[in-house]
UniProtKB/TrEMBL annotation:
Alphabetical list of PROSITE patterns matching this protein: OMPR_PHOB (PS51755), RESPONSE_REGULATORY (PS50110)
InterPro entries on file: CheY-like_superfamily (IPR011006), OmpR/PhoB-type_DNA-bd (IPR001867), Sig_transdc_resp-reg_receiver (IPR001789), WalR-like (IPR039420), WH-like_DNA-bd_sf (IPR036388)
GO cellular component: cytosol; protein-DNA complex
A biological-process GO annotation: regulation of DNA-templated transcription
UniProt name for this protein: Response regulator transcription factor
Domain OmpR/PhoB-type, residue spans: 126-223
DNA-binding region positions on the chain: 126-223
Keyword terms of this UniProt record: DNA-binding, Phosphoprotein, Transcription, Transcription regulation, Two-component regulatory system
Modified residues (4-aspartylphosphate): 53
Transmembrane segments: none
CDD domains tied to this protein: REC_OmpR (cd17574), trans_reg_C (cd00383)
Domain Response regulatory, first and last residues per copy: 4-118
GO-annotated molecular function: phosphorelay response regulator activity; transcription cis-regulatory region binding
Length: 226
């Protein structure tokens, strides 16, 4: 499967150049002209690398990267910006990006930096987690339920994995919201309720066979996990 790369750049001409450079190198590229659309799309996509401009409409590249890092410490992020002062590079790297390139840029260098970031962040041998009815391959992010592949959104996958990995205890609602959605969602429980209902529906769950509600506290995955 081709790696999926998000390109977040408001200049259409530059965005097309980046797209062509990365598509020709064998990657699946998705373009965004602003960070808000990219962040929203990330909720349902499996993204392997993101390229961010800094000066974007709406929220800046720096703020978008900080938002990503609230819940995802692993996604490789490359800043590609015309801001070439040392302080700009320091601020960009300190925000959570893994690399910083300045414009104008060379296509071959861009391709090389992307290859380097993907190599450094290549998943290590990840264990397969199994319960009575589930099999989760963390490396491929594949979930099997009773031998059938489950079609999960990115957030549904993260939520299910977090509950399964913490099956020995009740996971509090605010902890889940913090871990999966970030600090802004603490206290906003509706988004969690919606995703729990969606997971239960996909698990053919009667409400407690897989994910048990502990009223006033949170949730617990109840099947024994190997």
């Amino acid at each position: 499967m081709k790696e999926c790369i998000y390109v977040v750049e408001d200049d259409e001409n530059i965005r097309e150049i980046i797209d062509l450079a990365l598509t020709s190198a064998g990657y699946n590229v998705k373009q965004f002209s602003n960070a808000l659309d990219a962040l929203k799309s990330m909720e349902n996509d499996q993204v392997d690398l993101a390229v961010f401009d800094l000066m974007l409409p709406g929220i800046s590249g720096i703020d978008a990267i900080k938002k990503i890092r609230e819940t995802d410490q692993e996604l490789p992020i490359l800043i590609l910006s015309a801001k070439d002062r040392e302080i700009d590079k320091v601020n960009g790297l300190d925000s959570g990006s893994d690399d910083y390139m300045t414009k104008p840029f060379g296509v071959l260098e861009l391709q090389a930096r992307v290859r380097s970031l993907l190599r450094r962040h290549a998943p290590k041998a990840a264990p397969i987690i199994e319960s009575q009815t589930l099999k989760i391959d963390k490396q491929t992010r594949t979930v099997m339920h009773n031998g059938q592949v489950m079609e999960l959104t990115n957030k549904e996958y993260q939520l299910l994995l977090y509950l399964v990995e913490n099956h020995t205890r009740v996971v509090e609602r605010d902890e889940i919201l913090n871990h999966i959605w970030g600090y802004d969602f603490i206290g906003e429980s509706r988004v969690l309720d919606v995703h729990i209902r969606a997971l239960r529906a996909k698990l053919d769950d009667d409400g407690s066979k897989h994910i048990k509600t502990i009223r006033g506290v949170g949730y617990r995955y109840v099947e024994e996990v190997k």
